[in-house]
From TrEMBL:
Residues 52-188 form the Nudix hydrolase domain. It comes from Goodfellowiella coeruleoviolacea. Pfam families: NUDIX. This is ADP-ribose pyrophosphatase. SUPFAM superfamilies: Nudix. Residues 201-220 are annotated as: Disordered. One of its GO terms (biological process) is nucleoside phosphate metabolic process. Keywords: Hydrolase. GO terms for molecular function: hydrolase activity. One of its GO terms (cellular component) is cytosol. PANTHER family: ADP-RIBOSE PYROPHOSPHATASE, UDP/ADP-SUGAR PYROPHOSPHATASE. It comes from the Bacteria.
Amino acid sequence: MSELARSGAEASGRHEFQVVASRDVHVGRVVAMRVDEVVMPGGHTARREVVEHLGAVAVVALDRDETGADRIAMIHQYRHPLGRRLWELPAGLLDEPGEEPVAAARRELAEEVGLAARDFSVLVDVAASPGFTDEVVRVFLATGLSAVDRLVGSGDEEEDLVVHRVPLAEAVAMALSGEVVNAAAVAGILAAHAVRSGAATARPADAPWPDRPTRFATRT
């Protein structure tokens, strides 16, 4: 535990936010929504809407171009809630029962960008919006890349996605300029830059993931 995390734990409050009632509002294919009644520090209860999610993985697939500079495999994909195409990392849901996150990362890397990787490590875990959803994305770093057959033809948005190899320095600039807004992509790009520059170290591919979502998966 870092010194900052240790000091935060020591300063944390002691109230237990107990759930005294809960009801489902919607249970869909990918998410569910429930409403919890939670005991607040003052003794009253407050209503909290929670979107349950399967969790997901994303992959920073990194190799070098002909000049020796790092480059990253990115996709340009339509996202209906925002109504436009976004720059993203290869990514996908943890929707295969019993599948380990790194195995899901391998699968998505092959399916979306036609790549396999020799080595995987963990860059960051990203809580998408913890104020209302338990969605957390684990972002992997993949190196030692090789080409494999890409599976296309689901009939969904993935059939229209376009793959680009972008210099890592350019991807960092895109994240900081607002051209890349996907949370996992922004976090993964900046984390990869930190690791490659020597400012940080990636974690093992099987590093503990205490915040991996589980509640929605138990419904199916």
